[in-house]
Structure to design on (296 residues):
């Protein structure tokens, strides 16, 4: 359906010299906000992760704008150019291919550097795939941990999952469809076969699909070719059955400390930091509560 973008009233939006971080639709172009459309029309410079993607959105809005590419391989090189533009009184809009910039997308070095230079950076909020998926997942989402894309290689991915699966919050991952079976296999391998998941595919697009299930069952279906794996996925993992937040945090701290000290010492310090009974942390490591440990 064609979209005719018009101002609500009065003259075009006037922007101060600053960077505007503009969220764009994640699939359905009709999800663009009026504010985003106004900023994209009014900005002196539009930085785009992929100019082809942004051109489609601008065509949808009926806007003819010149675009400057800004992606992970050139954003630091763009800094001097952007600073000069803003110092000259220009306004700059930053967009990614879809959703909210910087959320598993380029932009962090640019925003950080501009902040350090005292340049104003304004959000223009809108779509975010992680939040959209959470809102319809049916999982308890008052608290969640967004982990973005997991490592591509299995060993690194399993190590990351090993650290995250004890979390008492919903886990949110982004993943390409072709790697979803590998992700499910690693969840199962790390003891999460019975963990409830929600696979959200192609959010807000024509082929949007939500598939709930436990990890072991979903893995079997994926390997049998029963799941459609084309497109982009948001994978949500239910909280650990161990909902003791203090214990999960204590374990996380203990595991970090284990990189630098013996298990008994790491467990004692983690207990002191969090207030968790140190015997619970010793039990995890098979260490004695008292024997062989220096008094404190």
């Amino acid at each position: 359906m064609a979209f005719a973008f018009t101002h609500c009233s009065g003259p075009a939006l006037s922007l101060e010299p600053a960077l505007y971080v503009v969220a764009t639709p994640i699939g359905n172009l009709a999800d663009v906000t009026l504010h985003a459309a106004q900023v994209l029309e009014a900005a002196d410079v539009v930085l785009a992760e992929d100019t082809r993607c942004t051109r489609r959105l601008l065509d949808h809005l009926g806007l003819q704008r010149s675009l400057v590419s800004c992606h992970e391989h050139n954003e630091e090189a763009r800094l001097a150019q952007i600073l000069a533009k803003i110092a000259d009184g220009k306004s700059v809009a930053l967009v990614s291919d879809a959703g909210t910039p910087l959320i598993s997308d380029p932009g962090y070095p640019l925003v950080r550097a501009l902040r350090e230079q005292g340049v104003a950076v304004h959000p223009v909020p809108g779509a975010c795939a992680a939040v959209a998926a959470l809102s319809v997942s049916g999982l308890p989402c008052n608290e969640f941990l967004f982990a973005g894309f997991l490592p591509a290689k299995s060993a690194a991915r399993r190590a990351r999952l090993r650290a995250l699966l004890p979390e008492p919050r919903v886990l949110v991952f982004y993943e390409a469809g072709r790697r979803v079976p590998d992700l499910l296999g690693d969840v199962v391998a790390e003891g999460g076969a019975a963990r409830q998941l929600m696979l959200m595919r192609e959010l807000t697009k024509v082929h949007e699909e939500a598939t709930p299930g436990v990890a072991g069952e979903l893995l079997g279906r994926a390997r049998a070719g029963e799941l459609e794996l084309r497109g982009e996925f948001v994978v949500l993992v239910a909280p650990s059955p161990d909902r003791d937040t203090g214990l999960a945090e204590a374990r996380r701290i203990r595991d970090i400390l284990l990189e630098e000290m013996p298990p008994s010492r790491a467990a004692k310090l983690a207990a002191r930091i969090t207030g968790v009974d140190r015997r619970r942390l010793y039990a995890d490591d098979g260490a004695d509560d008292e024997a062989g440990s220096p008094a404190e």
